[in-house]
Amino acid sequence: xxxxxxxxxxxxxxxxxxxxxxxxxxxxxxxxxxxxxxxxxxxxxxxxxxxxxxxxxxxxxxxxxxxxxxxxxxxxxxxxxxxxxxxxxxxxxxxxxxxxxxxxxxxxxxxxxxxxxxxxxxxxxxxxxxxxxxxxxxxxxxxxxxxxxxxxxxxxxxxxxxxxxxxxxxxxxxxxxxxxxxxxxxxxxxxxxxxxxxxxxxxxxxxxxxxxxxxxxxxxxxxxxxxxxxxxxxxxxxxxxxxxxxxxxxxxxxxxxxxxxxxxxxxxxxxxxxxxxxxxxxxxxxxxxxxxxxxxxxxxxxxxxxxxxxxxxxxxxxxxxxxxxxxxxxxxxxxxxxxxxxxxxxxxxxxxxxxxxxxxxxxxxxxxxxxxxxxxxxxxxxxxxxxxxxxxxxxxxxxxxxxxxxxxxxxxxxxxxxxxxxxxx
Length: 425
What we know:
single chain; 3 domains; four-stranded antiparallel sheet
């Protein structure tokens, strides 16, 4: 019988040898069979995956195939994200007594406005007896909690439509939003109790395809448990975005895909990747971020570091849009006196189909209130404001427009303009 030496430690630390019996023939055969069976099982699993229905398209289970185009074919999946826990409670969340400011109206005219909006007599009486201040042409009222909670949705929508035109009414000028088509899903996403959900829904008002909420200073103090307060803030500050991927199959047009996504002198870097992906016999889906420049790729789904005020001054949508193709951000684009002339000098409006790298501008009264970078198939890369609780993310163009339109009266439609850099023409 074959034996082999095994080193062991003897006394005084010297190495000695003892003799140990080798594996028997039967043991070796059993191990060999086990390895073969394991290898066969793993191979079968991979083969089954390659033949499985492409409902997930190699991305995630509930993905959807987009419309084919010069970009190839996107695969997209809805995603809900919320700010880091450390961001949720700061000076921004200090509860202040709600105050409504009206301009060029007397207290009597304000009460008439509420009456015309449909406020019941008992709430009007409570409001009339609240604290009022009148200074020059400004009229301020501190509404009681029961008035705020019990306003009917139509009344709230009409009154808050008046308030959101005045910059001092920050809550009404920047309300939290929920999509009408998935209201229950969004409100229940972070585990709010049924009681809090019911109270939150009671205080919503509708504008277009969105439900709005502007009364956190009233609702938050009504919740006793800190855990429930955190759930509420997460519910309000979550963002609906997307996972985006590019589906590549043996029939994909590599030249067309590389030409579309390779702007910014990146075509030579993308071609080897796309050509390699096309060799998968059943196709494969790659995360779209791998095709983006380093600026958006390194920031996607991330939240900026806040300062003491909870936001990064001037690192807004325009800063993100104009730095999209820059490896090192150009801080000149923090200055509105630079960004607006850049839009006018370096870009031209387009009337045709937008392409990767074009900018989408939302304009109100000749002022550019938002910009985003067009990607493909109706999606953009955007940073909605300069607050730390606003991440860099993907959005549908239609959803982005609806979100910003919610801050304007129904009759005041935002103008949407697509512009393209002159060097890309």
